[in-house]
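Amino Acid Chain and Its Fold in Token Form
===========================================
Scope: a single protein chain, as residues and as a discrete description of its fold.
Amino acid sequence: labelled as such and written in the usual single-letter residue code.
Position: the record begins directly beneath this header, with no further notes in between.
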Amino acid sequence: ALVNRLEGGQVPQVDKEEAPEIFKALHLAIQKQAVRSCHDLSEGGLAVAAAEMAFAGGYGMKLDPTRLPEALELSTPSLLFSESNTRFLLEVALDKMDVLYECFGDLPLVDIGEVIGTRQFTIKGNSGNTAISASLDELKAAWKTPLAWD
């Protein structure tokens, strides 16, 4: 945005009462070994965080962010790329889900997908159609390629 002199929309708002509770819950879940991996959604949003996690682990994902409560209010690009604080993408083993829900209690927590045994990366968009479908190799090549500023 700065390079191209773009003006953005709304700056994400942090709920100052809920934020510390989210951090405490996440810390507790990590201490209880319920969390395999975690990525914040601050730089590039959900799609970028998920791709970076997939690159690190070498496994694909199937994600359906339309399960998120705010999904109906957002366009697909906003849903996939909105940056915000106190939102995290967690990888949790199925047998640790109960522990995770126990740690988070009434705090917002939504299961939006799964890690899969192939190197395919798929995310649904708001229409229910596939918004992103690519191999990890294709995504990583695009991720490493500099932007064309022309």
Observations:
- The radius of gyration is 16 Å.
